[in-house]
Amino acid sequence: xxxxxxxxxxxxxxxxxxxxxxxxxxxxxxxxxxxxxxxxxxxxxxxxxxxxxxxxxxxxxxxxxxxxxxxxxxxxxxxxxxxxxxxxxxxxxxxxxxxxxxxxxxxxxxxxxxxxxxxxxxxxxxxxxxxxxxxxxxxxxxxxxxxxxxxxxxxxxxxxxxxxxxxxxxxxxxxxxxxxxxxxxx
Length: 186
Prior knowledge:
α4 (89-105) crosses α5. The chain is 35% helix and 14% strand. The protein is built from six helices and four strands, in the order ααβααβαβαβ. With 186 residues, it is of the alpha+beta class.
């Protein structure tokens, strides 16, 4: 092994403010003094020299389970009652799963954005209000499941940000949605 390689890991840890990191967690990964995995600036967990293909990554280390939280689009037709902000069972089930994952991530979640959207059917102001009500309904439900309200930002965009052509039924269905983005170090 080259001398430069031996100096690289301590240097990276010192620069990232993780000089107190140790390998006291799952074999093959650096863990900080609070028991959290040490990550690089891209959010990837830093592996130790003992890492191998059988090493089990700590929670939040590139686990697809959590990566899915980065952007979730919930179709209004399966999430809400028709022309309403009232959640259907399927919508509540999906939000239960999201709340569970956010809870397991804990303080690694820094912000949650909940954005409501509609199609262009009906008056623009009505659609704006419905999109805000749906986003608020999702936020309120997440809070009822233990998510910190202070981390949630709720917005309604009405018909102003379509993702599909409002000229077709399929396009209008795609535009009626709530999008959730969970920000953080995971």
